[in-house]
Amino acid sequence: MRILWCSLMMAGCALALSGASTSIGVARSYGEFKVDGASVRGNSTLLSGDVIESTTLSTTANIGKAELTLMPASRVSVYRDHTALQKGTAMVRGASHAVEAGVLRVVPEAAHSVVEVGYSGQKAVTISAHAGGANVYTSGGVLLASLNPGGVLAFEPSVGGRSASAAGQASANTALSLHGKLTSKDGRFFIVVSGKTYELSSSTVNLASFVGQVVDITASYVSTTGDVTIASVSTVTSASAADDAGLSPLTITVLLGVAAVATIGGLAAAGSFSGSTPASVP
Question: Which end of the chain has fewer CB atoms surrounding its CB within 10 Å, N or C?
Answer without folding.
Answer: N
